[in-house]
Structure formats: C-alpha cells, structure tokens
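User: quick one, fold this
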Amino acid sequence: MTTGVEGYMYPNEITLYWSVLIVLYPYITGLVAGAFILASLERVFRVEAVKPTYRLALLTALSFLLVAPLPLQLHLGHPERSLEMYFTPHRTSAMAMFGFVYLWYLMAVLTVEIWLDYRHDIVVMAQSSTGMKRWFYKVLTLGSNNISDRALAIDERVGWVITLIGIPSAFMLHGYVGFIFGSIKANPWWSSPMMPVVFIFSAMVSGIAAVMLLYMLVTRLRKQKIDMLCVDTIARYLFYMFIVDFSLEMLDLIHRIYEADESFRSLNFMVHTKLYFSQIVLQICIGTLVPIALLGLTQVLQLHEIVRKRIYVAAGCLTMMGIFAMRWNVVIGGQLFSKSFLGYTTYKMALVTREGLLMSIALTILPLFILWALVKLLPPWPKTAKGELPA
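Assistant:
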C-alpha cells in the first residue's frame, strides 16, 4: 500500500518558495558576524597578534552588512512593503524584528565603532586632502576636530564598550536566522533547538576564514610581507571554532538518529539521494573534514612558511565552500520533501532571473567592490607615525 503513494506530493508542496537568495542571505550575515567577532579579539580580548586584521575585519563586516538585506528585497514581490516592519512593528514576529536588529547593528554598533576608530585619521585626511575628498572627510568628522590625547583616549574607551555590546549583537543578528528555522515545528529538518547555536558558530567559522583570505590577498596585492604570526593566530582560532561547530552539528545529527521519529526514514532517504553530494561530499567531507585536517597539520607540525600559506588558502576556500553548502542544505533541503514524508521534489535554479544564478553571483561579489571602495577611502593599514598615513 505504501508503494502506491510513494513519491506523491500535494500541489502546494511542489513549488519551493525559498530560492538560492534565501541561501545567500544567512551566508552573508554569517560573514558579517564572523568578521566582527574576529575584530573583537583584538579590541576586547586583547589578542594583539590579530591586530593587522582589525580594521580590515570591521570594513569587511560593514561591506557585507550593507548587502545583507538585498537577497530578501529581491525575493519579495513588493520590496517596498519591507518598510512596513518599521512603520507597523510586529513584536511577536521574529522575521519582522530583524529590521530593528539590522538597524541597531548597522547604525549603533558597527558604523559607530568604525567612526571612533578612524576619527583621528579622518581629521588628518580632512586637513591634508584637497577638492572633493577634503569635503568628504570634513563631513565624516561630524564637526569633531579634536584629536588630542585625551579625546583619543575617550574614543578608545567608548569604542571598547561599543565592541563589547557588538558581540552579543552579532550573535543576535545571525542567531535569529537559525532561530527562525529552528522554531518551525512543522518541518522536522529545521525544527531543532540546536539550529541557532550551529548557525552562530558556523558564522564565526566563515567570517574568520573570509578575513584571513582577504588579508592574505590584499597584503599580496600591496606587495607587503604577510604577518605570519597574525595569520597563524587566526588559523588557530579558525581551527578551534571549526572543531566546536562540527561537534555541535554531529551532536544534532546523533540526536536525530537516536530519536528516530516518524520523519527519520524520509530524511535519511533524502540525505542518501538528493542531498548526498551537497551534504555528505561537499559540506561534511570537502568543506569540513578536509579543512579541519589541514588546519590541524599546521598545529602539530613545524611546516615552512610557504607551505603554511598554501594550506591556509586551501583550508579557507574549502571552509567558505562548506559553510555555503551547509546553508544550501538547510534552506533548500528543508523544502525537498512532502509533509506526509512520502514524496520528494527537486530544485532547479534558473540562470538569468531575479532569483537565478547570475543574480546570486552578483550579490556575492558586490560586497567585495564595496570593500574595495571603503579601503580606498579609509585605509585599514597601520599608521607609520602619528598624524601620518602610509602611501
């Protein structure tokens, strides 16, 4: 009797309402949270070894944060309606409250911290620049030209407090995405109290890996020497975060296997068929086990500097790939089976549409162009002397 209905899905279950743009959204917000956490290592936890990446991490977080809402806006049929969450707030809706979390993190945390950290440089550049750049930097000073030692000390103390507030804010920014999925009781693929925690730790993994890769790339393009103490320290924290993230995911998986409720047979079939490549091969093997092994080698063996650089690049790229696969398996995988656990569908991504492949690639690359512009305007490199900036 079961064979006769195997594969059946109701018409309203055949269409996947959340596309690759919804995959991209938590992926981008994860990079924001992870980059900010890396920056907080130097400001709050006084890990001086990662100081060369502090400003770059802040600018990276800002670049991706500016693009983070765009996948949601493109997904909406009427993106202008998103403003309603501000005009008519719904306090019991996790999705609606995201707008306020986003504004808080953008305007009250990240932007303020960057301004406080750069204020001395902005004043100097406003005095030394000419033409439009002079007026641009004058606007950024917000009328505050006091760069005395006492004023800068106040900036440092206030910036420390802002960073301290920003750490739970970063967790809230990305953890709420996992909270939304984990609170959907009707979908056993998503419904898990571990979902927000796994999202937070995977965000730290992806953000740390992204900043490490960007630092190595930008330093190479500037023809400067890479600070290996800095990169080694970042890689060590990446390794630790990866171990915790993978352990949490395995704990969630073991719990599901042990519980083996009525949905287990259907989900197990889907993992071994439709999601086998994206989850078993790409996410777990290539995107998790391989980078963990590579990073582990650098912790136990005394490898040459050139070898470590290549390992870090390979591990970082595979990590980014694996975290994206994780987001894909959560968002797309959770929509591939019927509510009756009897039928399955597929997701076919178009090439040139509002929610197609090309648009997703464009949204992924866009933060890098924004970062390039920010780096030109606000160089993240250390100052050579008080009041002077490197060429």
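User: anything notable?
Assistant: Confidence is low (pLDDT under 50) at residues 1-6, 384-391.
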